[in-house]
Protein 1
Amino acid sequence: MKILVCISNVPDTTTKIAFSADNAAFNTAGVQFVINPYDEWYALVRALELKEAQGGNVTIIHVGAADSEATIRKGLAIGADDAVRIDAEPNDAFAVAEQIAAYANDKGFDLIMAGKETISYNGSMVGAMLAELMNLPYVSLATKLEVANGVATIEHDIDGGTEVLECALPLVLSANKGMAEQRIPNMKGIMSARTKPLTVVPAASADKLTSISNYTLSAGRVDCKYIDAAAPEQLIELLHTQAKVI
Amino acid sequence: MSVLIYTEIAKGKVKKSSLEAVNYGSRIAKQLNTTATAVVIGDADLADLGKAGATKVLKLKNDKLASLNGQYITAAIEQVATAENSSIIIFAHDFTGKEVAPRLAAKLKAGIVAGAVDNPTIAGDAFSVKKNVFSGKAVATYAITSAKKVISILPNSFPVELNGSAVEANDFAVNLDAVNSPIKVKEVKKVSGELNLPDAELVVSAGRGMKAPENWGMIEELAKELGAATACSRPVADMHWRPHHEHVGQTGVAIRPNLYIAIGISGAIQHLAGVNGSKTIVVINSDKDCPFFKSADYGIVGDAFEVVPKLIAAVKHFKANKN
Ligand SMILES: Cc1cc2nc3c(=O)[nH]c(=O)nc-3n(C[C@H](O)[C@H](O)[C@H](O)COP(=O)(O)OP(=O)(O)OC[C@H]3O[C@@H](n4cnc5c(N)ncnc54)[C@H](O)[C@@H]3O)c2cc1C
Ligand SMILES: Nc1ncnc2c1ncn2[C@@H]1O[C@H](COP(=O)(O)O)[C@@H](O)[C@H]1O
């Protein structure tokens, strides 16, 4: 089975977010970048489990500049066989999907996996767009994935519950929590990652349909109002009369 | 030109997130002096669509639409959008919205903003739309520069207004003969009886401070008395104290209820990322220096095992006196 896992490069979850003086750009100074957790813990690890059980090949693909190569190497250290970096700025979801589609179209992947969403821009879009551009079925927010005889059985989240689907390969899915558990790369993986193939592909032509003009930090909360632990009925009163939520 | 709004039915009613989308789309249609057309799959009392501002309602008809398959819905909406000459299409950023809105946007080469939290600023053909980024730590203003535009709106970000009047719903037959999805639905498991966490207006959540799964009785009782859904922190789900679908945060479900009560949760940044959109946050924690208090509106410093039973009694008392 040939599996393609789309990985994005995001600020580590504990990053303090800051912007340029004119608020037009994210300030990356001193920011530690990591593989987007949904792509790493869920999509990539499940892809590796399937490969280990059934044979095949796991390729990771990333659209981004050369400074994201440390993140790509981490994916190789976890166990991907090879990596592709498409040399384009990932600043619009549709353009990213077009880049990946242009690369993947004639490669015969059986399964293309994305994460549920990036924790930076929280779009949840690239997987669905990729499916449309490649004319493939798409399953969003998959929590379980099994593959047997060329057919995937997938559980995914829907309104008020879950749904079990069956779909002949090839297909695109986005991975959600539940699909696999985080894996920490071992020394052997880290060593071998250095010599695994990382192919850099020039950018294809793509359409940028949106752009970010401005950022603002979200307003924090005003000071917490403390209530005596012995008198929680005061909390209920405040929730009713002041916050008006009950 | 018109504005198209995709809506859905759940439990025999138009979904709340769909009504929010109709409100949103109708505000845009008013500003542009055009029709707000709500399209709906399924049958129910559709009066609310008109009340929420739709000036036209179309029921999409095709047997293939029974299972809410993204490939079919995308093709169906493309057909109505062409027939209605709609270049602006609105969704709720819910399960179907996440599956269909980007797919449709790619098909139409429409710029998309997923998870909008504010009405667009319209200047000629250019829209600016705000959405949360960095898991709620910041807000970004996106410019959509393409002629066609898709916007999905973050549920629970706008109050629902129903001050319009009902309009007649007409059938719209879509032709899906050319689309054949290989996806087959094998089983649907609805979480019955429980409140659906992403839709819940009140949420009671607990973390590792509860010490053991057998201590969740009081959490469930508090939730039940309030009519709230239950949630938990990630370690609690990882240790299988609680089911995975209750895990909220950066790597779990993101929620924005009116009230979030966090009990025995330290307030790690990854936890906050999934709950900081809540309107009101209450933190109950035995450690007065617990970081969650910095993100709380109301705090109680105390042992959950003493505070929660008192809180349950207080809720019961409040309910008894309200009626
Ligand atoms: C990439 C990444 C993603 C993550 N994603 C998530 C996520 O999505 N969601 C999430 O929740 N976490 C996530 N985490 C984990 C997160 O960093 C924290 O470890 C986790 O949220 C802590 O859970 P907790 O607050 O229940 O436990 P703890 O941090 O152990 O806190 C327990 C709290 O209970 C209090 N307490 C103890 N006894 C009592 C008592 N008797 N009464 C009242 N209070 C008491 C303590 O004072 C303490 O504040 C993620 C971590 C990483 C690295
Ligand atoms: N620059 C990128 N390169 C490769 N894959 C990406 C990139 N951006 C997003 N993705 C994939 O698309 C998923 C959803 O991203 P988004 O639509 O931006 O929330 C991510 O979890 C990744 O799997």
Protein 2
Amino acid sequence: MEFKKTRRRNVWVVIAAMILLQCVWILRIFNSADRIRDGWMICLYQFPLLNSIIMPVVAAVIASRLCDVEHKGQALKLLETVMLPGKLFDAKFLCGSCFIFAATFLQFLIFLVTGYLLNFTGPVPAGRLFCYLLFTATVNVTILLFQQILSLLFVNQMVSLSAGLIGALVGLFIMFFPPEFERLLLWGYYGVLMLVRMDWNSTTRVIRYYWITADWNGYLTLTAMFCVLYLIGRMLFIRKEI
Amino acid sequence: MSYIITTNGLCKQSGKAMRVRDLDLKVPEGVVYGFLGPNGAGKSTTMKMLLGLVKPTAGTISVLGKEVNSKNRLSILKDVGSLIESPSYYAHLTGKENLQIISTLKGVPAKDIDRVLQVLRLEKQKDKKVGQYSLGMKQRLGLACALLGRPRLLILDEPTNGLDPAGIQEMRDLICSLPQKYGMTIMVSSHLLSEIDQMATYAGIISRGELVFQNRMSCLHEKSRSSIAVRTLQNGAAAKILQDHGIGYELQDQYLLLPCLNDHELAGQMGLLYTKNIDIVRIEERHKSLEDIFLDLTGKAVSL
């Protein structure tokens, strides 16, 4: 039903624009043989960075496109006489998640295809790629949930879109702060759950990438944040009077 | 008489303001019930409470013979159609797509869409985006959504708001025809007394959140009575003479308001005043309109 409502709302255009931007970015990165040697690591370093800027905005736009239809036509006062508000919240979130999962998977596909086409050196780090997919999808979905709550509670979609833009900036700049700060905010988890770190030697001006172990504690914290956010957001929406 | 809606001591408080106070509604089955009140009297809040969109601060609501609670609300509302304030729609979808969404959620067969499109005369506009509809068409679409699944009760909040005179007439005729055609009960709110007068057989009048009248429209009409207004150049002396002859009067704006006397009685009384050298300058018959009664009941001269 929610997909039916998104007809002519051009949600896929947002995802296509994001994919296009990432394609351009990846083509710009791999312009030397050195980089192709560390291809998988560079991808797993660059994409979370890119995600921290782009995905909060994409999530904000998707959530806004899905929820704005209810505010514009004052549809909630009719919908809530034929369905429970909690179910509407769940349905909206499932629909938005499908778009976010599709965007995450398409992005993952881009870098798999890039890896094969450019012949990245070394074996495919399948386990790490799977972790990346899982972590990215979880952070994206949690940010989408936050955006959906704002989009449903506030009629003025500028509130949620501004939150998305601020989130994008916070997500990027918080990576330059100590790791403890990253864990405090949703947008910081792109950095917390990174699988690759970069070491830049200022004298030789050489960049070295290296693997780090997955931060499962960070993942669990994020999952807990998701659950708490879901329960609070759903309750606030149910309690909202029309 | 069986009631399709009853409320007992219904209250709604927002902040410090009491928007609805101890409301005891009784809407008989199979009638058009007009819910009348000035702007801000609490009509929409009451209707939203009936539909469960707003939670009452106190009191109980029974719809279709069942007390409404959070568990049975949706099962009761399956037999209730509603149009609150302005129509609900998805502007980027066509009229038919809008109805398909609501019919799926209501669990109504798809063929019912064609029926309501026909009833509301929207067949030719069904494939047009609702964003391109006029306000009248949007209002009709809102009513079409409410009529999906042939509900037993329709709750319509100011359905003629913003319509042109032809649209108002059309909407009014349609509302009046529904109880006979489909056996529905309709609760319709308005701030326009004339509108309720033309549609409703029962009326409830709400003022400052309190119900000040609830009965048949005919009872409201009975309250409207005629009087004779007489103006003389010696009102004080005239009043004394009339009082001495057992005629009650009320002084209002330099007129003596007498009860509705028949022609012979009036001629006799006026002749008496003439013989006592009272100079009569005006004699008028006055009729107390429904508006006057409404103002008396609501106790304030508000914009109707």
